[in-house]
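Field reference: sequence -> structure
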Amino acid sequence: MTDQTDNKGDFFYGVMILKEGKWTPHSKYDQDSLGSALASAASLSDNREYEGAKVMRVPLKGPSGKMTVEPKEMWISPHLKARMEARTEAQILEGARKSKEQLAKAHAEHMASLQKRQEA
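Structure field:
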């Protein structure tokens, strides 16, 4: 892994590569080098040796042992982002379909119980 940090600040930018379905660290940059991290990730994203690349903001623990910022994905290969958005959309549609089925079933059961009461 390439380390281009000076270990100052609350976080660093980590460039990760996706290979064989697993994310692994590739390089890291200090918090003032987002542009360099993005350029590196974009270049790696175009490399056919890897399935994709992303830039993460990775927090460092402060003197108290607590992290002052949260980890955050800053950039991901465009083809992976599109795939993830499509998967999320499919999950939302599936959830809506299941909810509609459950509501229809509950309504049918309720109507059947009302009909039985009226018949009795």
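Note: The longest strand covers residues 11-19.
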